Amino acid sequence: WEYPLRVYTLLIRAALLDGDVERARRYGADGFALAETHDLPIHDEFYLYWARADRISGRVGPAEVKLRAALKNKLESDANHAALLFELTETLEQGGRYGEALTNMREARKFEIKDVRKQNDRELARLLIRFETAERDRTIAQLRQRTLMLWLIVASVLAALLGVSIVFLRWQQRTRIAEAASRARYEEMLLRYR
Q: Which residues, at least 6 apart from 136, have a Cβ–Cβ distance to it below 8 Å?
């Protein structure tokens, strides 16, 4: 049942954009009746657009009552709180209560600034996470590159050691063959002398 209430909110907004204030007020009354029938909580935007329809049609008193009722409820966000206070400011100004309108406007600005700060904090946190992720990815890439370089160095050293050992073994083999040949000649010479 909360979705039809959201639809009524959009219908009120569309009627206000079309300039049909009476239709917007009817949608507001129908949505409010639906909320009361099914005991639904009324969200901030419904109150905002419904009160705006009353204010535009010149019904300042009912608009103020709806806005104050909305402000007494737990609001969904600081942005909604600021929007309701701005609408109340315009309603009070239209009713000729400029002092109260100014007070509400100051309070609305506070909530607006608070909302902007929260959005900036969220954006900063998102950017910080992106930066940390990019930094981590860069560090991982550097570590992979270093690991690859180390493996290449180890493989090169092993290949060089293998080459040196092969050369050393061949040199040792040649040396043994030369010694064996030398020993064989020596023994042959001894046999000849005997």
A: none
Inter-residue contact 63 to 55 (CB < 8 Å): yes
DSSP 8-state class, residue 96:
T
Residue 62: predicted pLDDT:
83
> What is each CA distance from 58 to 62, 65, 79, 150, 154, in whole angstroms?
10, 14, 25, 80, 85
Cα 177 to chain center, whole Å? 76
C-beta of residue 87 within 8 angstroms of C-beta of residue 67: yes
Tens digit of each residue's pLDDT (9 = 90 or more) over 123-136: 999 999 999 999 99
8 Å CB contact between 101 and 92: yes
Phi-psi region of 19 (alpha: psi -120 to 50; beta: other; left: phi over 0): left
Q: Provide the 8-state DSSP code for 130.
A: H
* Range in 16-25, 43-52, 143-152 with the lowest mean pLDDT: 43-52
The CA-atom distances, in angstroms, between 125 and each of 20, 119, 129, 151 are: 43, 10, 6, 38
Q: What is the mean pLDDT of residues 140-162?
A: 95
